[in-house]
Design brief:
The chain has 224 residues and is α/β, with parallel strands linked by helices. Helices cover 32% and strands 20% of the residues. The longest helix has 14 residues. The model has no long low-confidence stretch (mean pLDDT 97). Bound molecules: D-xylitol-5-phosphate (DX5).
Length: 224
């Protein structure tokens, strides 16, 4: 997805999907009109859950007409970057909390030909990305503590979203500001007002009574 794509972007997490039918699930998300698909990669150490290896994502890649992003909730992202890029993830998001050399890690992602993203847990201040905006294509403000879907949105993160919005606008760089966790038609307006323009939704989108396409449309309208 080129960075100039009009916003807001609606990006589902496949965490709630039927893992026995990931190809079909990815095709269904594309048919529902999503802008990208996020893979929540978890190593069982940075977060207590364990999820997708690169081979799983590569197998699903051929079933998608939209780009993939990998949200790397792992303690050693540098060791995995090339494998998830090779699996077809065009955007690699690392956690600032797992990167002692964040500036170099973000540059390495771009050297691999992917776009770079940095995620901040709810407690991590916006200032952590102050000196790496030139190396960053996306900042992800987590609105839940990572590890599992279906958690409640943490509205206390909104002032940080607003601070990140100011930092990005002042930088002049074309950086996407993404939020992830507890995003529904009720919580998305607050995140959008605070300045987010890319929205991850998992459980709410999958559980919507009228199906994924209706859920995507509702989120897009509520975010506008
Ligand atoms: C947390 C995950 C979830 C997931 C979306 O580690 O990153 O935030 O993507 O979950 P929901 O939309 O179900 O809160």
């Amino acid at each position: 997805m080129p960075p100039s794509t009009p916003r807001p972007l609606i990006v589902p997490s496949v965490l709630p999907a039927d893992f026995a039918r990931l190809g079909d699930e990815v095709a269904a998300l594309c048919a529902a009109g999503v802008d990208r698909i996020q893979w929540d990669v978890m190593d069982g150490v940075f977060v207590p859950n364990l999820t997708f290896g690169p081979d799983v994502i590569a197998a699903a890649r051929v079933h998608s007409t939209v780009g993939f992003e990998a949200h790397l909730m792992v303690v050693a992202p540098d060791d995995l970057l090339s494998r998830y890029a090779d699996a077809g993830c065009e955007l690699l998001i690392v956690h600032a909390e797992a990167c002692p050399h964040l500036h170099r890690t973000l540059a390495r992602i771009r050297d691999l030909g992917a776009r770079s993203g940095v995620a901040l847990n709810p407690h991590t201040p916006a200032s952590v990305v102050e000196h790496v905006l030139a190396e960053t294509d996306l900042v992800l403000a987590m609105t839940v503590n990572p590890g599992f879907g279906g958690q409640a949105y943490i509205a206390a993160v909104e002032p940080k979203i607003a601070e990140l919005r100011r930092m990005i606008d002042e930088s002049g760089f074309a950086i996407e500001l993404e939020v992830d966790g507890g995003i529904t038609d009720s919580t998305i307006p607050g995140a959008a007002r605070a300045g987010a323009d890319v929205f991850i939704s998992g459980s709410w989108m999958y559980a919507h009574a009228d199906g994924k396409a209706a859920a995507v449309d509702l989120l897009r309208q509520a975010a506008a």
